[in-house]
Design brief:
This protein is of the alpha+beta class. 27% of the residues lie in helices and 23% in strands. The strands form three sheets. The protein has a five-stranded mixed beta sheet, sandwiched between helices. The protein has a two-stranded antiparallel sheet with strand order 1-2. It has a two-stranded antiparallel sheet with strand order 4-5. The longest helix has 18 residues. The two termini are 14 Å apart.
């Protein structure tokens, strides 16, 4: 995907403000809002998963990783939702989350680049599959030096270009 396009949560592509109109610019419902210009964000949220994970692990890791970004970077969270009957729902990210996959080596390199750029990040290590609570999760990560973490997932948020450089070598999750 080029730097001129961004996939929204519904899987449609939005196009940057180059005179073209994106489809479904806000990623809501099945249609674009009338007269709405495509929404472009200066930042990007990206999750990179190790390519040898089982499907249930990919989903679990992604959920844990993005929860960290939502708490540490509150500006990525939008407004609460409400349906036509007035029932309220929790707010979610205000922008799409790109999910990629990579080899263990590429994931490790991405982690190093995220650290060198001091971008907000969350990690999930293979050790966390054997724990059952937050306290033990934190202890498992704390027990391993940075360079020896057996990473299975990384979430990062930051300026679009910086995040693109961090995740270089990763590919779209199938």
């Amino acid at each position: 995907m080029s730097s001129e396009t961004e996939m929204n949560p519904s899987g449609e592509t939005d196009v940057s403000p180059s005179g073209e109109t994106g489809t479904n610019p806000l990623g809501v419902g099945g249609a674009s809002l009338p007269d709405a210009a495509p929404v472009r964000f200066d930042t990007k949220i990206t999750v990179v998963l190790r390519d040898d994970l089982e499907p249930w692990q990919r989903l679990n890791v992604t959920a844990f990783l993005v929860s960290g970004l939502g708490t540490a970077v509150p500006e990525v969270i939008g407004e609460p939702y409400e349906d036509a009957d007035g029932v309220s729902y929790l707010p979610m990210f205000r922008q799409p989350v790109l999910v990629l996959e990579a080899s263990k080596e590429t994931l490790t390199a991405a982690h190093g680049r995220a650290l060198s750029r001091a971008l907000p990040r969350a990690v999930f290590t293979s050790d966390l599959f054997a724990t059952g609570n937050d306290r033990d999760n934190r202890a498992a990560v704390r027990a391993v030096p940075t360079g020896e973490l057996d990473l299975v997932g990384l979430a990062v948020h930051g300026p679009r270009n910086a995040v693109d450089k961090v995740v270089k070598g990763a590919r779209m999750h199938p």
